[in-house]
Design a protein that fits this description.
Strand content: 5-15%
Oligomer: single chain
Largest sheet: 7 strands, mixed
Low-confidence stretches: none
Shape: globular
Structural class: alpha/beta
Strand order of the largest sheet: 2-8-7-6-5-3-4
Number of strands: 13
Number of helices: 16
Helix content: 40-55%
Mean pLDDT: 93
Order of helices and strands: HEHHEHEHEHEHEHEEHHHHEHEHEEHEH
Radius of gyration: 21 Å
Length: about 400
């Protein structure tokens, strides 16, 4: 069965309010399954009986199982946390004995700045991998140059949360492991809403995910490659932070939602994810290509990483996200016009990468990110409104 966006739209309860939501990176809409799962878990949580206590534990276990299915891992390797920043900070703390004097870590300006800040203090020698300012891509070759025998941790995102550029994770992991005995930490939060993840394909040491960025509850997780890695931490039990069982009740329904995006998906949840997510990827890839084509055709629109001579010949793999500016029009004005016409987007935050790409000089930018329920009509509507400013 082909991907049917009309059926998918029926699984989001908020889409009948007259707004067009193009801000999946900022405030993604919650599927009905997720809100229902959270409500059910919160109702069960306060019951002062042994059964309720067991129910809370079962809910957290189900959350770990669902996340394991999402990435192709096993539940015992999943560590839950209330936020990704908190998990990153805890990981840095518990790696203390591995990061002896003289050790180095490698961070990237493609990473979310809030996650980089959580890791910066873990070593005195912090090295930076730099994205290409023309395309926003993160070249893999530089990791062979900046990693040496002192490097213990490399942090990269699987995709940029604002530009949509996909990172060559496997190539970076291979180069990193050739250079040193280290761990590669990959944030998949901006990748998972669009593409199937298989931890074995990348051979990454740790995956990180913020479920809220997929339209789920405020629950995050680290997924380790082996139990042996957990044993190398100073105190593995201190890695996890307290997670509300009520919120965790939305995790399994979220993964089920993605697994059942295509009605004839069958088999285990992992089997259904393998069937549904590639079809979602194909659908949103086509929609994202139209988004880039139609907006990019407007003479006054600059799409970061897409517009310009350097990016013109690039064949970057992208998710359905872009950040754009209208020349001569402040970003606040652009967003205001979009809101006046029922379009929810978001002002692009000031990150080091977007600043270096010229976003501040041009007057700021607006980020558009697509979700499973978006349609060609949404792209047409956005293009018409932006054209009225260009």
């Amino acid at each position: 069965m082909a991907y049917d966006v009309a059926i998918v739209r029926g699984r989001y309860g908020s889409l009948g309010d007259g707004w067009t939501y193009l801000n999946a990176h900022d405030r993604p809409q919650l599927p009905v399954r997720v809100s229902g799962g959270v409500n059910k878990a919160f109702r069960a949580a306060p019951t002062p009986t042994f059964g309720a206590h067991t129910q809370a534990e079962d809910t957290l276990a189900q959350a770990r199982e669902a996340i394991a299915d999402l990435v192709g891992s096993t539940p015992e390797l999943v560590v839950l946390g209330a936020s990704l920043e908190g998990l990153y900070a805890a990981l840095a703390r518990e790696m203390h004995s591995m990061l002896r004097h003289g050790s180095s870590i490698v961070l990237s300006h493609q990473d979310s700045p809030r996650l980089s800040r959580a890791l910066e203090g873990v070593a005195t020698d912090v090295r930076w991998a730099h994205p290409d300012l023309g395309t926003g891509e993160l070249p893999a070759f530089q990791f062979s140059e900046i990693i040496d025998s002192t490097t213990r941790l490399v942090s990269i995102p699987a995709a940029h949360e604002l530009l949509g550029t996909v990172t060559p994770v496997r190539e970076i992991v291979e180069r990193a492991h050739q250079r040193a005995r280290l761990w590669v930490l990959v944030d998949v939060s901006a990748y998972a809403p669009y593409k199937l993840i298989d931890v074995d394909d990348w051979d990454a040491d740790i995956l990180a995910i913020d479920l809220a960025q997929m339209g789920g509850p405020e629950v995050s997780a680290l997924i380790f490659r082996t139990n042996r890695m957990l044993g190398r931490l100073d105190n593995p039990e201190a890695l996890a932070s307290r997670v509300s069982a009520g919120l965790a009740g939305g995790v399994a329904p979220l993964v089920d939602h993605y697994a059942n995006l295509v009605d004839d998906a069958s088999g285990t949840r992992r089997d259904r994810l393998r069937y549904s997510l590639p079809q979602l990827d194909n659908y949103l890839h086509s929609l994202g290509r139209d988004l880039t084509f139609f907006l990019g055709a407007l003479p006054s629109v600059h799409i970061f990483g897409v517009s310009g001579e350097v990016a013109a010949g690039a064949q970057a793999d992208r998710t359905a996200r872009i950040s754009f500016a209208v020349k001569g029009v402040p970003a606040e004005t652009v967003q205001g016009r979009l809101l006046d016409n029922g379009l929810f987007t978001a002002l692009t935050p000031h990150t080091p990468l977007l600043r270096d790409m010229g976003a501040e000089e041009i007057g700021g930018a607006v980020t558009v990110s697509l979700a499973p329920f978006n349609t060609n009509h949404d792209i047409d509507h956005l293009t018409r409104v932006v054209a009225s400013l260009a």
